[in-house]
Amino acid sequence: MSALSFPCTIFTTKNRMDDFGAKDMHCGDLSAEQLKKDFGLSIVSDRVDPWTLERKKHQQVSTYPASPSWKTESISKQECINILFDEFRACSKKFSFYGPYKDNIIEMITHMQHKQGLDFSSSRLDSALREQILTDTSTKKISRYLLQEALTKNINWENGYYPSQVKDELLKAIKKSILPKFDRIVDRFNGMGISVHDTWATHITIRSLKIENDRFRAVVHYKIQDHFGLDNQDVKNWKYRQFRMFRIWFVLQRYSRFALKPFMTNMEATIEITGVRNGKKN
User: Fold this and answer.
1) Domain assignments of the chain as residue spans, ordered by start
2) Which tens digit of pLDDT belongs to each residue from 146-157?
């Protein structure tokens, strides 16, 4: 048998990287009438009316008893967009108020406002991904556990290499696993659930495999991509539409008059997986 050469990509999702045709990457494709009629977005913001380009102002009426009312002020399209982004950031704080990743969503909203669809990456996101991979113990079906088992089982221990003929066993292990994503309870508050949550595409590569006696050490690289954008179902679902944040986000992205571009979120992490030959002690 021949030895498998490294680095070796062992897994790629069916969803491809840089898929700008994905449903949540659509931009500026809906009219005001469609947004109001088909998506129930007559009321979007507490601060502005995006359909009339008017700022809402709260005032007290000088009657007895006093009662609040609203007056409006005409503003430019750019002023309206800026106000909506400020409100977008303010609304996001209820989903992101704990831990080292809580500012991710603010940074990503601002990226959407100013960077015209350019890809986004950050060391904080990479750290969050690495931490998720290494600390998730919620199930034995996580990728690093199953990959460890496949390596331990299929290494040719007598000759100290991994046979290329059983490369598919590594793919099978990953296919049975739960890939890294941010849908844990803690992610509802730490900023990762709202800024990434699930992921779109994943590539997993074994960069190197070192076998000495009855032990191995594999260096494994995860490359993950998500889309910072909303598709139709995200807002047709009342679970999300009830929150101003998602209504504002959808209108900024999909309204033909605004058309702020969604973008690709890129994350990478490199970990080590170690193991020993079956029947041997650590």
Assistant:
1) 8-276
2) 999 999 999 999
